[in-house]
Amino acid sequence: MADTALVLGGGGPVGGAWLTGVLAGLTEAGIDLSGAEVVIGTSGGAVFGSRLLSGVPAAELYERQLSGVDAVRLPVTASQTARFLWAALGSRDPQRSVDRLARTALRARTGPESEVFGTVGALLGEVRDWPERKLRITAVDTRTGNVEVFDAHSGVTLLEAVTASCAVPVVWPPVTVAGRRWMDGGSRSTANLQLARGYRRVLAVVPIPHAVGPHPDARQQAADLSDDGARVVLLSPDRAARRVMGRNMVDDTRRPAAARAGHAQATALAASVAESWCD
After folding, report:
1. String of DSSP letters for 170-237
2. What H or E segment, with its residue span, contains residue 42?
């Protein structure tokens, strides 16, 4: 088996803030996350994974959440939420569920694709090139409903890959990359731990463990990897973190508290994480 895989899941602006707190807390405890053999990023996890591997310190990602920088203005209406839930929960079959969501996303009246590229580009900052270390970014093909992976050899830019991974169905339009339309990589799985199969040690930081719809959650995927012989550590928000994060993952006012909660949780768990990750 290969060695280490760092899996970073999606979770909207609030979940992303919690994730940066976890990354910063673990790094402060002496755990080298940027040295992972592969980083697998989904949605917000794709943004922060790209920045981390491009040399942006975890502490800086965290401080930007505390200071209110990197704000994402993503007003989600009750109508959009209802359409999303109607599509994703309309079938107990995973394939039919994601197909319904894709059709709904393609028909939704949203802003232009350029708006998504602009927002994600601002979040990436000056990071535009694929990092030297292995980075895999997920997105869902709206035609097939399949989770696919972009990397440095896919023939697309880093910005295109991350934007495809972040295109929240119904809220943002599916984006066109390499002649195909893509929606959020978390549409079937919020972190896509299945892509870490074959790695000996897996650390998954997952702000939202369950995708909406009849899809496997992060805990089940972690258990499957463990059954295959991997040593897996899955971090998701604890009770204290969930309390400060609330239910609205786009509520920008909650980002600083969510980041602090992630930092506190990582600090408390650092020793156990190191035992699995750093041997």
Report:
1. TTSPPEEETTEEEE-TTTT-SS-GGGGTTEEEEEEE-S----SSS---HHHHHHHHHHTT-EEEEE--
2. strand 38-42
Whether 3 and 158 have beta carbons less than 8 Å apart is answered as: no
Task: List phi, psi (to 5°) of 38.
Answer: -145, 145
Which range is least confidently modeled, 69-78, 89-98, 217-226, 251-260? 69-78
47-92: per-residue pLDDT in tens?
999 999 999 999 999 999 999 898 888 888 999 999 999 999 999 9
H/E element holding 137? strand 134-141
The predicted pLDDT at position 75 comes to: 80
Answer for the pair 51, 124: CB distance below 8 angstroms, yes or no.
Answer: yes
Distance between CA atoms of 160 and 156, rounded to whole angstroms?
A: 6
Residue bearing tokens 């496997």? 216
Q: Is the pTM of this model over 0.90?
A: yes
How many angstroms separate the CA atoms of 250 and 168, rounded?
A: 12
Mean pLDDT to the nearest integer, 231-250:
96
Q: Please, what is the end-to-end C-alpha distance for the chain in angstroms?
A: 15
Q: How many CA atoms lie within 13 A of 33 on its CB side?
A: 34
Residues 144-163: tens digit of each pLDDT: 999 999 999 999 999 999 99
Phi, psi (5° rounding) for residue 147? -80, 125
What is the distance between the alpha carbons of residues 135 and 41, in angstroms, rounded to a whole number?
Answer: 8
Which of 2, 61, 58 is closest to 34 using CA atoms? 58
What average pLDDT does range 188-209 have in this prediction?
Answer: 96
